[in-house]
Amino acid sequence: MTMPAQQNSQIHQGFYRFINEEVLPATELNPVTFWQGFEQLVDDLSPVNQSLLDTRERLQQQIDHYHNQHQGERFDTAHYQKFLQDIGYLRDQGDDFTIETSNVDDEIATIAGPQLVVPIANERFALNAANARWGSLYDAFYGTDVIPRVNGLKPGKRFNEARGNAVIKQAKDFLDRVFPLEQGSHHNVSAYVVYYKHLLACFPDGSQSGLHTPCQFAGLTGHKEEPTAILLQNNGLHIELTINRKGAIGQHDLAGINDILMESAVTTIMDFEDSVATVDAEDKIHAYRNWLGLIRGDLHASFQKGGSTQLRQMHKDRFYTGKNGEEIRLHGRSLLLCRNVGLLMTNELVANKHGLQAPEGIVDAVVTCLIAMQDLQKQDNDSIRNSRSGSIYIVKPKMHGPDEVAFSCNLFERVEQLLGLPENTIKIGIMDEERRTTVNLKACIREAKQRLCFINTGFLDRTGDEIHTSMQAGAFLPKGAIKEQVWIKAYENWNVDIGLACGLPGKAQIGKGMWAMPDEMAQMMKTKIDHPRAGANTAWVPSPTAATLHALHYHDVDVFDLQQSLQQRSKAKLADILTIPLMAADQTLSHEDVERELENNIQGILGYVVRWIDLGIGCSKVPDINHVGLMEDRATLRISSQHIANWLEHGICNDAQVQKVMLRMAAIVDEQNATTENYQPMATAPDKSIAFQAARALIFEGKHQPSGYTEPLLHHYRLLVKQQARQ
Ligand SMILES: CC(=O)SCCNC(=O)CCNC(=O)[C@H](O)C(C)(C)COP(=O)(O)OP(=O)(O)OC[C@H]1O[C@@H](n2cnc3c(N)ncnc32)[C@H](O)[C@@H]1OP(=O)(O)O
Ligand SMILES: O=CC(=O)O
Ligand SMILES: [Mg+2]
């Protein structure tokens, strides 16, 4: 239902009420002026948004044409590069410069640590994420495969003491490695005390030792001779030794350590984009309301867990006494960033007088910033405050090249004017996840140089765009092999090289992508240290537990120090980035290889899509063919669907084969969801399953989807399900 709120546009009634009744009253904005300004902004910027989408389409057609014309020829990188320049895909990168962003919070500028991402539509998860600034190391070790689940170490229904001991051993090894004592080991400490301004570790034989690096001791709670917490600091991150000799763990620990709390998710992205299914006004208002609750600090969620009802709220800041007796106040919550949607979609919230829907990205920018401005009105001593430096952080996904970045910056400038905010209050995080942004990254950063707060290699979308952009160039390698090719390493290094050259350290994050195997934490511990080692001062994790574990990596690597030396290395090459990860002309795959690849992709597609379409769940853990639970979101769906579309296009598989695999996999996915509440099976009547139809469309119409995006089809089919439910 819509209502003509203003002369020239139609505003959805529920949305209009939400803004007028729940959001605007907390601001000093005049509602009439606000709506008029909003309408004007939409009128002015919608055509620009559209023309940018038209440019995407034009360039894609030219690239398709180029590859079709050169089918079967040896790929000529120089010729291709020249062609990309001629059509305006590859732009002049211009002179050197450094960014000028000001008023960024320490979490962005000076603290290197994990970045958590969470679907905003799920308040239970969103609250958990906001609170994930601090996480229990003991829980993270005990609850994951970081401690192998073998022999006597398997976790059971009851506490497994052997596993508990292994946890404590590993945690104290970490203390010895990162916070070594001048003499002796944390394993043998019988008490920690504070003497004058120093931490002293006491041993059973009466000897004592200070820290090897005394300045790592930051503060305490409780009495100096019997502290209840010891606060330590390394590489800008804190940890707390929680001491309680009566605690469940502490009573058995020589030093009375009951837990080790790690500063974990330093920043968190509240995601309105690829991890949510928000297709209409109802969904969007729910998401905006959650963001409002987080900004106000009063969001809460009550749910059943472990047989009891739990109430979850935002944590308050943490207080300690410093070495000089001063009060130390540490942030109790992650610094929240907000990922808006990109330029592609529209929705029913706002339409012009002809009924043409406004771009969702424009509405997101206005509403999420209108909400976030309430944070800027808070005082220093407010218990739940997000930015202490007066900034709003918007992550902008899926931008293609510098013109789109310039557009987003212009949009933010207009939003600042509309809301009466100082210039450059709204910071932008650029997702480097479309090929045209990667190859023009320096020019993109220049467009945002006054408000840039991060660049991040979203390698999942980037892989999807790699396939779609070069759909006509030939058959792509199997998915696993694509990740091993030269283009991706060059893309990752290029991002860091350019970030460093543009002076991001100290002003903006250089970030890396998601760990997409949420249960494989041992593997994450081995490999994700490569992110800080590559010079990234943040990288994405899928859960609070992963944040706590990944935080260990930033204790081991001093990223800011490393970034200095990386400035001297030889730079990644554009030619490598432009090397398309195709199968060689003479390469063949066996029937089994093709089937296995299809099965894996299709299982992921169906497993994700069925929950998206039927249940409105935007991010799921879906087992792959080897039973490894994978985080699936719209970006991973984009890869899988584009990959099959590419193989269909180049005859590696055919329609009938894909249909057959789909039916087989539907039965498996149904089985996997046997206990999922309200689940509608697909395999028994696939033609009646809207979710199955959606999956089919994503594959068979994949080639024609704009940039290979999945949103248009997902929204279409989800809206059908919602419509049916109303009938
Ligand atoms: C390409 C990209 O764009 S990546 C960015 C988008 N992706 C994301 O945002 C991933 C976010 N992660 C998630 O949504 C989830 O972790 C999933 C879907 C991958 C797995 O979810 P589940 O299967 O429910 O996880 P699991 O059962 O292992 O754990 C659930 C618990 O972990 C918590 N949890 C899991 N993920 C998160 C998260 N991202 N933030 C906060 N809490 C989380 C839940 O709150 C829950 O704890 P609770 O019972 O105390 O509330
Ligand atoms: O948004 C992240 C990605 O990898 O895509
Ligand atoms: Mg992405």
Automatic annotation (TrEMBL):
Reaction equation(s) it catalyzes: glyoxylate + acetyl-CoA + H2O = (S)-malate + CoA + H(+)
Domain Malate synthase C-terminal: 594-695
In-chain residues carrying the UniProt-annotated modification Cysteine sulfenic acid (-SOH): C619
The keyword Zinc is annotated on this UniProt entry: no
Record: active site: R339, D633
Residues at which acetyl-CoA binds: V117, R124, F125, S275, R312, P542
Malate synthase N-terminal domain sequence ranges: 15-74
Gene3D superfamilies: Malate synthase, domain 3 (3.20.20.360), Malate synthase, domain III (1.20.1220.12)
Cofactor(s) this protein requires: Mg(2+)
UniProt-listed InterPro entries: Malate_synth_C_sf (IPR044856), Malate_synth_sf (IPR011076), Malate_synthase_TIM (IPR001465), Malate_synthG (IPR006253), MS_C (IPR048355), MS_N (IPR048356), MS_N_TIM-barrel_dom (IPR046363), MSG_insertion (IPR048357)
SUPFAM superfamilies: Malate synthase G
Residue span, Malate synthase G alpha-beta insertion domain: 159-234
Localization in the cell: Cytoplasm
Cited Pfam families: MS_C, MS_N, MS_TIM-barrel, MSG_insertion
Domain Malate synthase TIM barrel stretches: 336-578
Binding site for Mg(2+): E433, D461
Function of the protein: Involved in the glycolate utilization. Catalyzes the condensation and subsequent hydrolysis of acetyl-coenzyme A (acetyl-CoA) and glyoxylate to form malate and CoA.
Similarity section: Belongs to the malate synthase family. GlcB subfamily.
Protein name: Malate synthase G
Organism listed in the record: Neiella holothuriorum
Lineage: Bacteria, Pseudomonadati, Pseudomonadota, Gammaproteobacteria, Alteromonadales
